[in-house]
Design goal:
Number of strands: 0
Radius of gyration: 23 Å
Subcellular location: Endoplasmic reticulum membrane
InterPro entries: Glyco_trans_ALG6/ALG8 (IPR004856)
Strand content: under 5%
Family: Belongs to the ALG6/ALG8 glucosyltransferase family.
Transmembrane segments: 110-133, 145-167, 173-197, 227-249, 335-352, 359-386, 398-419, 453-471, 483-506
Oligomer: single chain
Helix content: 55-70%
Protein name: Alpha-1,3-glucosyltransferase
Shape: globular
Amino acid sequence: MEKWSLMTITVLLALTVRWAVSLGSYSGAGKPPMYGDYEAQRHWQEITYNLPIRQWYFNTSDNNLLYWGLDYPPLTAYHSFVCAYIAKLINPDWVALHTSRGYESQPHKLFMRTTVFVADLLVYIPAVILYCFSLKETSAKKKVSTCALCILLYPGLILIDHGHFQYPLSLGLALWAVLCLSHDWDLLGSVAFCLALNYKQMELYHSLPFFCYLLGKCFKKGLKGKGLVLLAKLAGTVLLSFAACWLPFGTDVEQIMQVLRRLFPIDRGLFEACMFSSPTHCPDKVANIWCSLSVLIKIKNVISPRTQLKLSFAVTFLSLLPACIKLTVQPSLRGFKFALVSCALSFFLFSFQVHEKSILLVSVPVCLIINEIPFMATWFLLVSTFSLLPLLLKDGLLLAYAVTTPAFLAVCLASFSILEKTSAEDLQLKAFSLSLKGYVSWFKSFPRIVRSLFLLSLSLMEILSILSAAVPPPQSLPDLFPVAVAVVSCLHFLLFLVYFNIVILWDSKNRGQKKMS
């Protein structure tokens, strides 16, 4: 009973923070003609409610795809329809065809914010709570609640979902999939991940670890016996899940092809993650390798879009290959969770058409291992929130950022004593250090070096945050601070990618299948 009391307090605190952030501004508020992601979600409700399904993804006189046209999979459209149905009952003006464009009012803002709260309460938060209860290392009452508190107070997700405006459903469904796999409910986990993928195509960031882990389990059971049966069941489950999601579009091949063209608009180019951004939004300032390199080399001007696609695919594939091979050969839940981090980070850094918000696809898996490597996980989550700073400033979320980020750091310091967990063993680098010749001499000072780098990193992020918020850039360099934030974040992420891959490849704890590591 005491355990649940502590968890109740944790959830109430997390909800209070979300409510406080939701009182502020949102993406594109009062900024016609395109407004922002808030208007995009409202517009999808307008379209899905008023138009037949066959027109949802097509450009028509009633559905101008240049104005926030649907570019997410069918489950997003179905969710928009459900929200629109409720909105119509409250106030038909909110989803009236054409005339509701750019609709802004306090009652409507309350409704939209409430829909995000409901999604959080029904999908994401329960998954986090059950995940923390499942962790063997956090069986103590206090540790379960503190682990949940750290995950639920991660500022990046709160600021984007309840500030900028976004639904946490795809990440929540992916988390449910991880939870199911941790209990050997492989078929349910497959269904949950298929739903996540059919809500947002960016869940492809997590697809290879799911595929490799389940394939590895089949290999381990033997492809001439139980493994083959499991493989057949998994294949059937995936096919049925996709068929159910795409059923309304399955009667017409052209419908399916149009949806796919909307989901994967290759012709936009390497950098155009958000073609329909408002004039004030600059999609090129993403903390990945291509945007950082473009500071020195204008890749868009020297490489054709098709070549950009091939190059990004090749680099992404090569960067995630080691972790995927290791996971397939030695499937374990611990390796699976670390592979989710590594593969998602590879996609973010090197793949085609990356949005700054996509870092959340890396951050949520990092939250899942915060109990194992609290120091590095906390550091990464702070950097990931910092990388969103230019977007948050445009949305008027500076105050929320300035409050939630230090608060998150304080909670992690109090919960995990992260500055005391910087040894090679704490960072799970012991096996790697033993493989290095002459490691004894400099690994003795390793904790001190890591702490110094962490403090230096925090100082640099703090300085750039203050400069971005308070100092006007030079007229000749209007994007100086967003570019600096992107490059600094990218350098951090590259080092984190190396670190996570070292942990995966030198992992000495993958001793078969575990219930939960």
